[in-house]
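dumping this here before i forget
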Amino acid sequence: LIDSRNLHGREIGTAVAAVTAVGRRLVTDPRWTERALSAVHALPVQRWWAVGDGLTVVVPPDVAVRAQRLLHDGLVDGGAG
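structure:
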């Protein structure tokens, strides 16, 4: 990811969206990490990381809302609580 605000007119790469699910278990428990990644497996996830108190997936902007919903459904509605 590049913060393009200081590139002054240069186009580098394409637009992306970062969607984060918050919860320490997503970082410390591999079962929860897998649960989150399984929730978005059908999406074109370009990168992901789990650090601190959450897991972030990088997706094209046009699927960001869907990624958010799938993570919520897979983690909260799916019993993560």
